[in-house]
Amino acid sequence: MISQREKMDIKLAKNDKRYIQSTDDVYSIMQRVLLRENKIDQEKEHFWIIGMNQCGYILYIELIALGTYKAVNIEPMNVFRVAVMKNASRVIIVHNHPSGSLTPSEDDKDTTDRLIQVARILNIELTDHLIITPRSYISFRTIRLMEELEQSLKYVPPYQVVERIRKEEKKIAKEQLAVEKSKTKAEREKREKLMRATVTALLDKGVPTEDIAKILEITPKAMERLINKTE
Asked: Which long-range contacts (CB under 8 A, 24 or more apart) does 64-68 make?
């Protein structure tokens, strides 16, 4: 557990941007935050959250947890506590790897997976997760790991899984119906085109319209429509 002193808002420096437009903006701020820590704390994993409004304006930056040199434990609901209080509609989570490695661990992925589901329940957009070191960073969104985790069902409540499956089934059924309608329409147009060509050829040979209708097995009204379309 971290102390109340440690668990607090991070104050932005004078030159720090207040708007997040890219992952570089996030890293620029959080790199300086990390480097402001004393040497001992730099060797520990930190877990921060950046809360923003819909336009990307930073509402707050909070240190959620301070761990050991190789791990940091967090409670998912605590991550979003201030986000709810300050009406943040978007958040970015950031943590550092003292080892210097930027490779996401299985725990990093699992934590992000859980937080995505909590964010959905709270109607907050978890935009990205950055792993940083004093020299570089990676973005889960940029390497498409965020997209992969957003499709995960590991922490989705069972009833939501069922709803998602039903929604997908309806989507597939709707697409199949559209394909069938398209096929039917194409086949109908092809048949009608062939019949018009047949009518034209028989009329040119002087075959009476009544006889053509019998040959094509259509009603006189349908025959009349075909003649009108061929004219």
From this structure: 64/7, 65/2, 65/7, 66/2, 66/6, 66/41, 68/44
Query: C-alpha distances in angstroms, 152 versus 33, 116, 157, 167?
Result: 32, 10, 12, 16
By CB neighbour count within 10 A (0-12 exposed, 13-18 middle, 19+ buried), where does 212 fall? buried
pLDDT of 3 reads 44
What is the strand order of the sheet 90-96 is part of?
58-66, 46-52, 90-96, 125-132, 137-139
Q: Which residue has the tokens 């009204």?
A: 221
Query: Which residues have C-beta within 8 Å of that of residue 157, sequence separation ≥ 6?
Result: none
Total number of residues shown for the chain: 231
Backbone angle region of 168, left / alpha / beta, with phi > 0 → left and psi within -120 to 50 → alpha: alpha
- pTM comes to 0.66
Average pLDDT over residues 120-135: 94
Angle between the 220-230 and 209-216 helix axes, to the nearest 10 degrees? Answer: 110
For residue 33, the surrounding DSSP H or E stretch is helix 23-36
- Report the Cα 83 to chain-centroid distance in Å: 20
